[in-house]
């Protein structure tokens, strides 16, 4: 996991990841940061329909980038992502107990350091993820485990220090987009296809 390498995620990808992380944090969130989370949710941009052609992006080769989410009949893409987030949060709830509180305390302390750059925050998140990653069984896909633990660490830090919610949210979205975006794309695509 190199937090310095970007895979070129676009606005569409960032929005999907933002909705996924937001949904994960929202599901079963403690009262300690619910108000802050509701305020953050009002700030998230929500496109009218993700599959519309005016949302396509011009690529450097002159072609158009079409979005990977097919149109759905019974539910919007936002609802699909919310359902995925809810399912991941349920799995995360079972994993929650094995994250040491000292690790959460240390990560929260790092995030309170106002002089840290976004890159430094991603590096601290990556280090915390590495510290807990080896404690989980290998029967789950590595990318799924990393995604769950990343969002779970964000949730635990926000619960620990609610004032850090926005910073933790932004760093988590950036980290996932830089390290796990292909997995997130496949997760959403497969969820839509097998509904």
Q: What letter string, H or E per element, gives the SSE order?
A: HHEEHHHHHH
Could you list the spans in which at least 5 consecutive residues all have pLDDT below 50?
A: 1-8, 47-74
Radius of gyration: 17 Å
Helix proportion? 55-70%
Lateral strand order in the biggest sheet: 1-2
Spatial gap, N to C terminus: 31 Å
Q: Roughly what fraction of the amino acids lie in strands?
A: under 5%
- Please work out how many helical segments DSSP would assign: 8
Instruction: Please provide the count of β strands.
Output: 2
Task: Indicate the structural class.
Answer: mainly alpha
- Could you say which overall geometry the principal axes of the C-alpha atoms support? globular
**Average pLDDT figure:** 80
How can the largest sheet be summarized?
A: 2 strands, antiparallel
Structure characterization notes:
With 195 residues, the chain is mainly alpha-helical. Helix content is 62%, strand content 2%. It is built from eight helices and two strands, in the order H-H-E-E-H-H-H-H-H-H. It has helices at residues 11-26, 34-43, 77-95, 101-112, 118-133, 142-160, 165-179, 181-193; strands spanning 57-58, 64-65. A two-stranded antiparallel sheet has the order 1-2. A hairpin with a 5-residue loop joins strand 1 and strand 2. Helix 1 (11-26) crosses helix 7, helix 3 (77-95) crosses helix 6 and helix 5 crosses helix 6 (142-160). The longest helix is centred in the middle third of the chain and has 19 residues, at 77-95. It is globular. The model is unreliable at 1-8 and 47-74 (pLDDT under 50).
């Amino acid at each position: 996991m190199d937090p310095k390498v970007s895979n070129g995620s676009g606005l569409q990808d960032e929005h999907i990841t933002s909705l996924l992380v937001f949904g994960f944090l929202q599901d079963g969130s403690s009262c300690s940061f619910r108000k802050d989370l509701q305020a953050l949710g009002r700030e998230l941009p929500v496109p009218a329909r993700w599959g519309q052609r005016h949302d396509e992006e011009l690529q450097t080769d002159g072609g158009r980038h079409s979005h990977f989410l097919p149109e759905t009949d019974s539910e919007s893409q936002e609802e699909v992502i919310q359902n995925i987030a809810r399912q991941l949060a349920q799995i995360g709830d079972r994993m929650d107990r094995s994250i040491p509180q000292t690790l959460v305390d240390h990560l929260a302390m790092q995030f309170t350091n106002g002089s840290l750059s976004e890159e430094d925050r991603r590096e601290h998140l990556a280090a915390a993820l590495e510290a807990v990653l080896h404690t989980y069984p290998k029967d789950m896909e590595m990318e799924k485990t990393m995604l769950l633990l990343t969002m779970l660490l964000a949730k635990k830090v926000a619960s620990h220090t609610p004032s850090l919610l926005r910073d933790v949210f932004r760093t988590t979205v950036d980290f996932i987009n830089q390290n796990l975006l292909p997995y997130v794309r496949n997760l959403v695509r497969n969820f839509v296809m097998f509904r």
